[in-house]
Amino acid sequence: MEKYYAENRERFLNELFSLLEIPSISSDPAHKEDMHRCAARLKELLLAAGADKAEVCPTEGHPVVFAQRLTDPKAPTILVYGHYDVQPVDPIELWKSDPFKPEIREDAIWARGANDDKGQAFMHIKAFEYLVAKGLQRHNIKFILEGEEEIGSPSLAKWASEHKDLLACDIMLVSDTTMLDEKVPSINCGMRGLSYMEIEVTGPDKDLHSGHYGGAVVNPINALCGIVDRLIDENGRVTIEGFYDDVVELSASDREQLARAPFNQEEYNANIGISEVDGEKGYSTLERTGIRPSLDVNGIWGGFTGVGSKTVLPSVAHAKISMRLVPNQDSEKISQLFEKHILAHVPKGVKVKVIHHHGGNGFLIPISSPAYKAASRAMTEVYGIEPVPSRGGGSIPVLADMQRILDADPLLMGFGLERDCIHSPNESYLLSQFDKGLRSIALFYKYF
Questions:
Q1: Residue 242: what pLDDT?
Q2: What whole-number distance in Å separates Cα of residue 204 and Cα of residue 224?
Q3: C-alpha–C-alpha distance, residues 201 and 319, integer Å
Q4: DSSP class of residue 247?
Q5: Cα separation of 1 and 221, whole Å?
Q6: How is 252-283 classified by DSSP, letter by letter?
């Protein structure tokens, strides 16, 4: 693999850059044509890599790219999942370079999607190309690359259900996650689910002069802040009735196993510029982001936020809230409990509307499975140290749906790092991780 990669490295990077240059922002209707351009480019790359079949498939939303190369009906079938849509780039002024003009500096690729998930998905295409070129493909390999992961994959579950036979597989192979450290690799054996909601608070029927009405009329922003503040208690626990009913408490021995993961609290704080952490009392930082649910405000707005001053009492205020859920919690149930709780605690003088955006359930996979063992062996050979099993704090909600539809577990071989700023300005992906990811994926096929 090393020789093949060295001989083709410049071409690999140029091909990846051709994907990164396309602003495939799924949440913005203005980029609809870019989504189709990116899907078409992926089809070209998959066919060039050796796929017998590759097609851009329409869905109710953005298209899905499907490809396959089958070798033997009796051989195991691996379905590679990834996504080609990316997050918006705002605030654009914080980027050090154009997010859609990828460049290499400081031994990393800098661009929106460099890691999440174009860079990581691209590694699978190149590892597949290597297997085909060298006559090493022993498995049936399929690809499904979607264009809606960053908006909750609203179309994929239905499309997958309608094409269940086409997607039939033994395992799903996914690189859309991070590892603990570039020197201490890890494999996610579970991820949290998600419930994403919005609260809209309405007071007067128009913005009002804050001098004429301030102190006499309920301010929707003030009311909203009060609602949000009461969602977390002094112990860091969510106050929604029934929120913890289905949360499974891990045993002391299980918590000891998870605590084996190397973690430096001071480095963690320094990496994100904070002086101390916060969260549910009685749990460590890794436990708070891996085995415990959480609730956070992702955005809050209303009134005047422009340059200068405008003394208004706003008519409407909004907040978007995400709840990260542990595997036994049901996303739809939590969303309903959230709405019930909010509507039961509406302050006098305002009207409240709760909007359901998207969500999905979490999942766990056994570390005793042949696929996990093959991934562990491959990464041990590449990194020189056995990877640590970990729990991912993020969410890929559609994977739980795919697991149910296809009756196949996902294997999360992620190579991103926290330093990569995947949803923030200045997203990047270390070239060393790109290199090691390619080698690890190719070796996975050898050992599985």
A1: 98
A2: 14
A3: 9
A4: P
A5: 57
A6: HHHHHHHTTS---HHHHHHHHT-S----STTS
- Nearby residues of 183 by Cβ (< 8 Å), 6 or more positions away: 383, 385
Q: Angle, to 10 degrees, between the axis of helix 431-447 and the axis of helix 2-20? A: 120
Q: Is 214 in a helix, a strand, or coil?
A: coil
The pLDDT tens digits for 151-194 are 989 999 999 999 999 999 999 999 999 998 898 899 988 889 99
> How far, CA to CA in Å, does 89 sit from each of 26, 42, 66, 70?
12, 22, 27, 38
Rounded to 5 degrees, what angle do the CA atoms 439, 440, 446 make? 95
pLDDT at 252: 85
Specify the pLDDT at position 2. 87
Q: How far apart are the C-alpha atoms of 445 and 138, rounded to whole Å? A: 8
Report how far residue 131's alpha carbon sits from residue 71's, in angstroms, rounded to the nearest whole number.
12
Please report, as a single letter, which amino acid is at residue 108.
Answer: A
DSSP category for residue 74: T
Q: Tell me, what's the pLDDT at 69? A: 98
H or E element that contains 61: none
Provide the H-helix boundaries in 273-367: 285-290, 331-344
Q: Does residue 167 contact residue 404 with C-beta atoms inside 8 Å?
A: no
Type of residue found at 429? Y
Chain centroid offset of residue 327 CA = 16
Pick the closest to residue 115 from 440, 443, 418 (CA basis): 418
- Amino acid 412 reads L
For residue 121, the SS3 value is helix
Per the document, the length of the chain is 448
Digit-coded pLDDT (tens) for 15-67: 999 999 999 999 999 999 999 999 999 999 999 999 999 999 999 999 999 99
Q: What is the pLDDT of residue 366?
A: 81
Element of type H or E holding 150? none
Long-range contacts of 241-244, Cβ-Cβ distance < 8 Å, separation of 24 or more: 241/337, 241/340, 241/341, 242/337, 243/293, 243/334, 243/337, 244/293
Q: How far apart are alpha carbons 33 and 83 in whole angstroms?
A: 16
The residues pairing with 194 across neighbouring beta strands, listed in sequence order, are 324, 360
Q: List 428's β-bridge partners, or say none.
A: 110
Give the integer Cα–Cα distance in Å for 301 and 299: 7
Burial of 278: CB neighbours in 10 Å, binned 0-12, 13-18, 19+:
exposed
Structure tokens at 170: 């033994």
CA distances from 314 to 199, 223, 226 (A): 15, 11, 16
Question: pTM of this prediction?
Answer: 0.81
- What secondary structure letter does DSSP report for 9? H
Classified as helix, coil or strand, 388 is: strand
C-alpha torsion angle, residues 222, 225, 231, 234 (rounded to 10):
-100
**Is residue 162 helix, strand or coil?**
helix
